[in-house]
Amino acid sequence: MIEGDGYELLSSMQKGNLDSVKADEHGKIKKQTVALDGVSVTRVTFDVGAKWSNDLKDYAGADSCRLPHVALVLSGTLRVVMDDGSQQDFSKNDIMLLPPGHDAWSVGNEPCVFVEFSHGNDYYTGDRSS
Questions:
Q1: Could you read off the pLDDT of 1-16 as tens digits, one per residue?
Q2: 7-9 and 24-26 beta bridge pairing
């Protein structure tokens, strides 16, 4: 990385391929992550019947997901319920911006697949520090 005007500039082009990454599986949720300088890109698949509180709660060590997420839904539908009870369904081509404190599950008879972009600490990389 190159420093410039208070931000970092990439020093070279980078490429990763999600199909070449071994899946990290937790119950009915599968994640494939490529880490580039400063950002991780994760393809997440919530199979039919997958639910964060059933499949990832024990791994995360929290009653609800404590991380923010920015993602593009490629297929299927994901229902997200915030700790305050508000909810939203996200389907193909929807962009999700989720604050910490939520549960999520696949809706219908099709897996939900989305690509998430993250920077910093992330359960997907196994780093649970703050």
A1: 555 555 566 678 999 9
A2: unpaired
Q: Where are the beta strands (DSSP E) in the chain?
A: 2-4, 7-9, 24-26, 29-36, 39-46, 69-75, 77-82, 87-91, 95-98, 102-107, 112-118
Sheet with 69-75: strands ordered across: 24-26, 29-36, 39-46, 112-118, 69-75, 95-98
User: Is the pLDDT assigned to residue 109 strictly greater than 60?
Assistant: yes
What does the CA dihedral 102, 129, 23, 103 come to, rounded to 10 degrees? -10
HSE, side-chain direction, 13 A CA sphere, residue 35: 9
d(C-alpha 44, C-alpha 33), whole Å = 9
Instruction: Measure the CA–CA gap between 45 and 28, rounded to whole angstroms.
Output: 8
Closest listed residue to residue 95, CA positions, set 72, 125, 124: 72
